[in-house]
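Input set for joint prediction.
Command: fold jointly, output tokens.
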Amino acid sequence: MEPSQIFLTDEEFEALFSAEIARLIRNLNEVSQQRCRECGGKCCREVGCRLYSPAFKGCPIYEIRPRECRYHFCNQLFVQAPLDKEQLELLMRPITEFTRGNREEIARMFPSFPTFPPGEEGLASLGIREAVVQVVQAFEQGELSEETARALLRNICRRY
Ligand code: SF4
Ligand code: SF4
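tokens >
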């Protein structure tokens, strides 16, 4: 699998998931900003993301984060930004496809499922685990600035 299938730009995400879903997720992101900053990325830590470090001010590859991350909002965010029934159904549409077992649609929407792409196994399968870990460690040890570390991680993930 190519990293470009996993690490998506906003435009690529929108092309896959539709403009309506992308807009809804942008709105939820706006609501989440303050809350996620205060929380410090509890979900990213718990899910075992190897790109995560509490020393970063947020996701280091935010611009190209995988769809699994774009799609994740914890319950406290849903409470803060209550969605109406129509919006909820729209958001759940790709997940509904999952449960219906539409294999083609699943493979198209979530090509790495059930592996979490920025986790240990996901990065290893893309052949970039060591490179990612080295950059995160160098940043945590003060050898790289945050800006440089972020740029390097984006390069490794997408090979811009
Ligand atoms: S989505 Fe929820 S758990 Fe994750 S960083 Fe934001 S507030 Fe924290
Ligand atoms: S890649 Fe995903 S799990 Fe990792 S820090 Fe970014 S948003 Fe969190």
